Amino acid sequence: MISPTKKLKKLPPYLFEAINILKNDAYARKQDVIDLGMGNPDMPTPGHIIETFCDTVVNHPNTHRYPQAKGMLKFRKAVADWYRKRYEVELNPESEVLALVGSKEGIAHMSMAYLDPGDYALVPNPSYLVHKNGVIMAGGEVYDMPLTEDNGYLPGLEAIPWRIAKKAKLMFISYPNNPTTAVVKDLSFFKKVVAFAKKHDIIVCHDFAYSDVVFDKYKSPSFMEVPGAKEVGLEFHSFSKTYCMAGWRLGFVVGNAEILKPLEKLKSYLDFGIFTAIQLAGVKALNSSQECVDEINAEYKRRRDKFIKDLGKLGWEIEPPSATMYLWARLPEGFRHMTSLEFCELLILKTGIAMAPGVAFGSYGEGYVRMALVTHYNRFHDAALRLKKFLGDERK
Ligand SMILES: Cc1ncc(COP(=O)(O)O)c(C=O)c1O
């Protein structure tokens, strides 16, 4: 048997798999599963975006040909206009914007474009898995930057040893944050990151996938708003969450033109970009009224408030997040002797509710669970009833 690469073997075990197996067992038993596990938006893509896609496919057959790999100019211009309007950031659509097959693709390829074996990347722990796994797949070395309640889920840059900082080529950060739901209140943390990156000559990759999943008048700042950010870094965006387009696979990255070039070069050998009809649907999304985004967020907020209130009544207190469609919670009292994986396994077995164990996102996520608010409002009522019984029966 021919073995796959050592890099692939080095990838940490996919801990969602344990939950997925139990979830599938529950489905097989015809148990009614409430899936709060994966961050997979359940609401449909807004109608005007779908209409643009359908119209393009039917009426513009020239779009059925290979697309332009880096993204069509119309798409890149729409992104640049959106940045100007939103953040007063100027981007050259020719050289400072690149279309992605979803932001995950771009983030993973960024590591492959920049890391040789032995090169370091600074990665938050816990984090969205591809931040770390992209580095491992590239043969690079991961240096963990712990995100904890005590540090407000912001990495302590001063704790990074000088010898590591000197060897690091990339740094990943992401606010609003998955899985911790942490946000930055203003630009002060990003300013420190820019200074750090300049001092040690590091490329900063800001994953801004949740830029628009925000509540209670919170406005998430762009890393690109910081003076000097464009000299040191990139910002990755996704249509998946903002417009419920996860299955469409559309994203983009913006920032320093020289830093983008190797990523564009690598991609040009691997993919042909995104189906033009999907890019045009993306242009429609960016150029239209953003009322649909407010509606999507209002629904997440309704679910957030309902579930937090119900869980609070059960003695499981959770701070309402100002962004992302997740709740990040310590294991409830009476269960803290368990690991987060043990808790999630027991929970799905006994109740049919799937949650993501915090440790699946990194060792510093241990002791926590992540709940994705991606099912119908009424299901949160059912979930709370089941949790009431579960917590009563199983609490130690
Ligand atoms: C922080 C973060 N970045 C990126 C992604 C991937 O998004 P996309 O669908 O654009 O690949 C996700 C998806 O869950 C995410 O949570």
Descriptive notes:
The structure is a single chain. With 396 residues, the chain is an alpha/beta fold. It folds into two domains: 6-44 and 291-394, Aspartate Aminotransferase, domain 1, CATH 3.90.1150; 47-287, Aspartate Aminotransferase, domain 2 (3-Layer(aba) Sandwich). It contains 14 helices and twelve strands. The longest helix is centred in the last third of the chain and has 23 residues, at 291-313. The protein is globular, with a radius of gyration of 21 Å. Pyridoxal-5'-phosphate binds at residues 39, 102-104, 128, 174, 178, 207, 209, 238, 240, 246, 251.
Question: What would the keywords be for this entry?
Answer:
396 residues; alpha/beta; Aspartate Aminotransferase, domain 1; Aspartate Aminotransferase, domain 2; 2 domains; seven-stranded mixed beta sheet; three-stranded antiparallel beta sheet; 14 helices; binds pyridoxal-5'-phosphate
